[in-house]
Amino acid sequence: MSDTLSFTLSGGDIKTLVDEVEEDTGADRSTVRGVVADKLGMPLWALEATLNEGDAA
Fold first, then answer.
1. Which of 42, 43, 56 is nearest to 8 (CA)?
2. From which domain of life does this come (predicted)?
């Protein structure tokens, strides 16, 4: 059995994650987005595009 957990996040899930981390930590939005993008292994521009896509839905 693998120790790796695999999952998929939709744009709405990522937006919720960013909002909750920002609220829980009190960190500013750009810092939170940078850290979340890094942890998800995606460039910041891709995270921003995903979040903007979620806003449009």
1. 42
2. Archaea
